[in-house]
Structure formats: structure tokens, C-alpha cells
Specification:
This is LPP20 lipoprotein. The chain is an alpha+beta fold. It is built from 13 helices and nine strands. Helix content is about 55%, strand content about 15%.
Length: about 450
């Protein structure tokens, strides 16, 4: 027990001796005295004409030059840190000049700008004091720079840092993947920094190029802002129709609601940009794929999802045709001129209406004085010619056929359709009316097929 106590006391004594300021130093240098100069104290007053910083480093053996160099580096970093703090203060002052949309972007840039100055190389810095504390093995260095030089360095580094941030903000404002509000805020912050700082003393900052770039960004975002109202309207129309589709139980109503939901959604996706999901409440592309599947368009869903396993062109065309007409308002106008005045061609409009109704369209026959209505597809089908007549030489029966031109016109599609052709029906033994009815069926079939081809 006594032996252990003596050993413990010896250890404590050795430790105390090692940490004692009067212990023998491990370095082998000649010191500058035992009393520390006043300038080594953090509370030392600073000359009004200069800016100073002090650094200290441990001396390893006789390696005094290395210790002095390390102390100088520390002092230089201290000067750079003072510039960094000054830069941060300057950026915060600029913060008050920025619109609300840009403040968050500008605040986030403060540290980025300031950090860029920590590796600054200051000009006209001199080591005006040094002290070697041989007893404590510490080397001290004071660096000083004229206050005017310090301010020039501070201003230069501030402006270079801010110019880099302007470039970064413009890059964000140009990023089509970012929400519009974030892009607008970034552009506003860039404009504030360019407008509230004088870069003329820093020729390496490309101010003219940055201003030109900002002008292009502002025009682009202004156009997007105008488009946003229209795009948000499309999104709202889709949301309303989609809710009707989800709640519909009648197959016809469900098909029509799907068409009303798909049209604004496809228009939205065809735009040069799509508002962020957080703004419109849904992810547009995934919604398109899921809605196509739910509405019974598996081929179109695969195409929208870019799946390798596709469908036959005929099946894809049929689905596109059905998607286009589902729930769409269509007005029909049909006329037949055989001699003299054109008359309503009832059979043609009836045949068209029946075919389009199977695709989910809501059709109505337009009056002669009706004017085109926005958002409604208009289809005209006209025939003009004569009824040929002959008597069969064998059974003496009479035959009838139509000889003339058929003209169809569709408006309201992305690509209008105009189709004119010469028609000659086969001989019909019943009546001239039956001949024109057969013409109506074939003309309606041809027109519906043409519409389907335009959407392949």
C-alpha cells in the first residue's frame, strides 16, 4: 500500500513538472525575453491607420523558421476572417434591398460569398512584429496592413464573391426543373446584387454579360408567369374532371369524364414547362399513365410510360381515336345537292353521329345558321352530283347510283382535315334514296377513319 502511494505521488510530481511554465523547454532556440509584448494580447489597442492580426505557433526543437511561418499563416487567416465577417455584414445590408421572393435565396448565399474570402491573398501585408518565447516554445508574429489596403481587399473580395453568387443565382433561375417561385426569387436576388453594388473597380467581374443574362432570364420568367395562369387553369380543369371520373359508375359517364380529364392533362404536358407538383397537386406524367390505364386505354398507357412492349399500330390508332372523342362536343352539318338547292343530308349525319357516339362523343346536328363554338369540334359532310339511272337488260329492273363529289371538313382538331374526292356508288335496285344512303354510310366511314389516322 505504501509503495503504491509513493509511486502515485511521483507520477503527480512528474506531471506537475511537465506542465509548469518554469520547466525546461523542449525547444532549442534563443528567445526575446520572458515578458510578452503588449501586442500579443487580444485586448491590445490597434493603430487607426492599420489593421493587424496576431498568430502563434509551437516551436519544435530548433525549427524556428517553420514556427514563424506557421504563425504568419495563422495571422494571415485571421486577417482573412476579418474580411469574411465584413463581407457577411455587407451582404446582410444588401438583404434589406431585396424583394420578399429573393430574400431566402440571398440569405443562403451569405456564407458562400464570405467563405470565398478565407483563402484570400492580401497585398501589402507586412510582418511588423515578432517575438520568440523560448521558455514556452512559442513563436509570435503580428501582421499589419494599411487600413486603405484592407478596405480595397475587402471590397474586391466582396464584389468577386457577389459576382459568383449572381452567376449561381442566374443558373438556378434558368433551371427548368425548379419551381417558378424559386426561380423568380433567385432572379430577384441576382438583380438586387447587381443593382446595389458598384463593380467598376473590379474589371475581372463580367458585369455587362451578367446584366445581359439577367435580362434574358427576366423575359423568360415573365413569359412563364403569363403561361402559369393558363397552365393552372388546365390543371384545375383536369382535377375537376378526374374527380368526376373517379366517382362515375355509369360506363358512358365514366368514359366521357375520362376524356374531359385527359384533354387538359395532355395539353398541360405538351407545354414548354409544367408547374411543380406542389403547385398543381399532382405529378402530371404519372397521372397520365394511371388515368389511361383506368380509362381502358392500355396501349396509350404503355406508350405514355415509354414501355418497350407496345401495341399494334391499329390498336393504338383506335385508342387514340376513342380518347379524342370521349366526352367531346361535336356539331355535325351534312348536305346533299342533287339538283338545285342543297338539302339536309339526314342519313349522313345520322351515320356519323352513331359512329362517333360509340367513341364517347356528344353529337348534335347544327342548324344552317349556327356559328362555330370554341372548344367544340365541327364536322361538315357535303355531297353534290346526280343520280344515274339504268334499266337492266335481263330482268328489266331499274338501278340507281350516285355520281359526283364528296367534301368533308373537320375543325377543332390540332390538324384540320379537308378531304374532297369523286364518288361513284354501285347500282342499287331499290331507289335513288337508297343510293344516297349507301353513299352516306361509306362517306361517314371514310371520314371517321381519316380522323383516326390524324391521331396516330
Amino acid at each position: 500500500m505504501t509503495h503504491n502511494r509513493l509511486f502515485g505521488a511521483l507520477v503527480v510530481a512528474l506531471v506537475c513538472l511537465a506542465v509548469s511554465p518554469f520547466a525546461s523547454a523542449a525547444c532549442k532556440v534563443i528567445g526575446d525575453g520572458d515578458t510578452a509584448p503588449a501586442w500579443t494580447s487580444p485586448q491590445a489597442p490597434e493603430d487607426a491607420a492599420t489593421v493587424s492580426a496576431v498568430g502563434s505557433a509551437s516551436i519544435d526543437g530548433d525549427r524556428l523558421p517553420e514556427a514563424l511561418a506557421a504563425a504568419r499563416t495563422i495571422a494571415l487567416k485571421e486577417l482573412a476572417e476579418r474580411i469574411r465577417v465584413s463581407v457577411s455584414s455587407s451582404v446582410k445590408l444588401n438583404d434589406s434591398k431585396v424583394s420578399e421572393g429573393g430574400k431566402q435565396v440571398l440569405r443562403s448565399s451569405i456564407e458562400s460569398v464570405a467563405e470565398a474570402t478565407t483563402n484570400v491573398t492580401l497585398q501589402n501585408v507586412r510582418a511588423d512584429q515578432q517575438w520568440v518565447d523560448a521558455r514556452r516554445c512559442q513563436a509570435w508574429v503580428r501582421l499589419s496592413i494599411g487600413r486603405a489596403d484592407f478596405e480595397r481587399a475587402r471590397k474586391r473580395d466582396l464584389l468577386i464573391g457577389l459576382s459568383k453568387q449572381v452567376g449561381a443565382m442566374l443558373t438556378l433561375a434558368e433551371d427548368a426543373t425548379k419551381p417558378l417561385v424559386q426561380r423568380e426569387g433567385s432572379a430577384a436576388a441576382a438583380a438586387a446584387l447587381l443593382g446595389s453594388n458598384d463593380f467598376r473597380d473590379v474589371p475581372e467581374v463580367p458585369v455587362a454579360a451578367l446584366r445581359s443574362r439577367l435580362g434574358g432570364v427576366d423575359k423568360m420568367l415573365a413569359k412563364m408567369k403569363q403561361d402559369e395562369t393558363r397552365l393552372l387553369g388546365l390543371a384545375q380543369s383536369h382535377v375537376q374532371a378526374y374527380a368526376e371520373f373517379k366517382s362515375a359508375t355509369n360506363p358512358v359517364e365514366r368514359l366521357e369524364a375520362a376524356g374531359r380529364a385527359l384533354r387538359p392533362l395532355r395539353t398541360l404536358l405538351a407545354a414548354s414547362w409544367v408547374p411543380d407538383e406542389s403547385v398543381i397537386g399532382f405529378a402530371a406524367q404519372p397521372r397520365l399513365v394511371s388515368l389511361l390505364n383506368e380509362a381502358g386505354y392500355p396501349c396509350l398507357a404503355r406508350k405514355a410510360a415509354n414501355e418497350a412492349q407496345g401495341c399494334a399500330p391499329e390498336a393504338l390508332a383506335q385508342e387514340r381515336q376513342k380518347e379524342y372523342f370521349a366526352g367531346r362536343q361535336v356539331t355535325l352539318s351534312c348536305s346533299l345537292r342533287l339538283a338545285g338547292k342543297a338539302e339536309p343530308w339526314v342519313k349522313a349525319c345520322a351515320s356519323l353521329g352513331e359512329s362517333l357516339a360509340k367513341l364517347g362523343a356528344r353529337t348534335q346536328v347544327a342548324s344552317a345558321a349556327a356559328k362555330p363554338v370554341s372548344g367544340v369540334t365541327q364536322i361538315r359532310l357535303d355531297a353534290e352530283g346526280r343520280i344515274g339511272k339504268r334499266q337492266d337488260p335481263d330482268d328489266k329492273s331499274t338501278g340507281y347510283r350516285f355520281e359526283g363529289a364528296v367534301k368533308s371538313q373537320v375543325r377543332g382538331l390540332d390538324s384540320p382535315i379537308d378531304d374532297t374526292y369523286q364518288a361513284l356508288t354501285g347500282w342499287n335496285p331499290v331507289s335513288d334514296a337508297m343510293a344516297t344512303d349507301i353513299l352516306a354510310l361509306s362517306a361517314a366511314k371514310r371520314l371517321v377513319e381519316r380522323i383516326g389516322q390524324s391521331w396516330q
